[in-house]
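User:
Care to share a sequence and structure tokens?

Assistant:
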Amino acid sequence: MTAAARASAWAIAAGLSLAARGAPADTPRDAPAAIEVDRDAAPAGRVGFGFDGGQPVDAWGASLAVSWLERPIRLAGGALGEGSAATDPVRRRQTVALGGALALHDAIAIDAQLRASHQVGDRLRALGDPAPLAATVLHDLRLGGRIRIVGTRARAALVRAELTLPTGDAAQLAGEPRWTAAWSLIGRTTFERGVVAAATIGIRLRGAEVAIGDRVIGDELFAAAGVAVPVAPGWAVTGEALGALGDRVAGRVGPSPLEARLGGLAEPVPGFRIGAHVGLGQGDQIGAPRLRAGLTVAWTPDRPRATATDEAGRDDRGSDASDDGDASDDGD
């Protein structure tokens, strides 16, 4: 990685860190439907973990993902005020996500994703609002970028920056009222026999904080970790955990959801990858679904491999050549 790219990565991280420290605690908006209850963070244009685990992007990738959520938001009795009944503002949601990724450099990738959903639920009936929950909704547009700051394709530390734009249905629990920005540090390594482990930790900032009963959706810390274990050529099983720690604003505490997932990855033909997973939320936190099931397919063509003649004239790139040939690494 060039010195300029590395400097850019640290500049992104430093800038967002300063923004987080300097962001004032605003008075939360009284708009309890203006939140996003699906916290899926899988990067677009590839198949792998439910978070950016540093999977290499050779040239480009396109992905189609479908998911089924059961009870992504549950509010207990009294959560919306004294005497309010328990309610499921969104009881069930089916989502389709289209995404793409593009490699700008061996160490730099960008991606974008847009989602749409069908959903059923109570919306804000417990607050006395008779407006029904919209059956079909669009979500916020999500843009992301990632830079490898040190290491190789198989063993690396990376920085990711992400921005969501308020294009979704913010009155239907399917979008934020304003932008959100996040940055995270990612670690990834490939062990013997192709076992891949990855972890990330970061901070998410919201342009507007929203009160929903006794909770507030605001800035938060988040983290995730996962492992992929090959079980046959082109096949792997995965396990991961994803969580967040909400901020405290104006006497309210942000949700701290935790989700555990099990899944599998497959590459039946070179470049065509499939991933499936099942997740269980831990507790009745906003964004921790009772059940999540998902399926993703992606076309991610590999870059042309160097020939023996090319190898004789190339510069020393450490273990990149062997990393590229790792089947589990390609599948994440």
About this structure: The first helix runs from residue 3 to 22. Confidence is low (pLDDT under 50) at residues 15-25, 306-332. The first strand starts at residue 60 and ends at 75. Helices lie at 3-22, 308-313, 320-324, 327-330.
